[in-house]
């Protein structure tokens, strides 16, 4: 079996079917994929070695983003949404953004929750820090933990309520997107407000969104709303890249007993019913909340930890789905293989 028959670990499709081009053969392999996977290079190398029935493969895993349908300096826009509040959507959005960055992509994060912006606090941006302007017309995004970010929280104080009607909120969102000078982004993660209202319609109709991720918990009521969110994006022809389930299991820190406080299998069930993948299931863990509240989300606070690994795997699968769908499920990449005498 050759490299071209190796099934991509995220997509389950062979690199040959994905259009990955094999130039030669040997145990030194350089692969360029359409999604970032720097953190999985060793795992891919072991899997490829097993596939080729050799002891080791010297794998150089590279990332080249697929052609996007974004705007200006943004290749792909991914909305992270939930039709119900309180399911951990903002925490998921910031950790997915940081995970994509850790995997090797250039990433931005837009906080589209105009009424209740939270990403400034989650990213540890000091209150009162304001974005710089360019020619008095555009904002330069604030950089935190290696990603670019923009939020209404950078423009107001934490105690300022946004008492705005729908059209004003939609206008503010369009300004945040269009007047932010994003700098050469592979992905812009948009943290959506909960629900299926003005902001969601504005984003889907006025912005070239490449895909969406739905965040839920195992609770039946949350799953009902998650289904509404999936159908909303489908009605406006935005592909749902997958589902992330939060609060899947609580592990007692004293005895280690796992308890499904909010039910079991809900995220997997809604994903199967709607024909989308379950990207990841996160535990109900105090450190996730503490790290986000403290301004250093889990992927940045404990990048090699078990919870960060779930976020990073979810980010890889999300980006891989986007790559595969960007050209009808078959996307091109490159493999360069050189012979060695080892």
* Reported CATH architecture of the largest domain: 3-Layer(aba) Sandwich
The SSE string, one letter per element, is EEHEEHEHEEEEHEHEHEEEHEHHHE
Average pLDDT value?
85
Q: Could you state the CATH homologous superfamily of the largest domain?
A: P-loop containing nucleotide triphosphate hydrolases
Basic shape: globular
**Uncertain regions: pLDDT < 50 for 5+ in a row?**
329-342
Lateral strand order in the biggest sheet: 8-9-5-10-4-11-12-15
Class of secondary structure makeup: alpha/beta
Compute the separation of the termini in Å: 20 Å
How many β-strand runs?
16
Query: What is the fold-level CATH name, i.e. the topology of the largest domain?
Result: Rossmann fold
Portion of residues within helices:
25-40%
The portion of residues forming beta strands comes to 15-25%
Q: Quaternary state, please?
A: single chain
Q: Class of the largest domain, according to the CATH hierarchy?
A: Alpha Beta
Helix count from the secondary structure assignment: 10
Main sheet properties: 8 strands, mixed
Tell me the radius of gyration.
20 Å
**Domain unit count:** 2
What structural keywords apply?
342 residues; four-stranded mixed sheet; 10 helices; globular
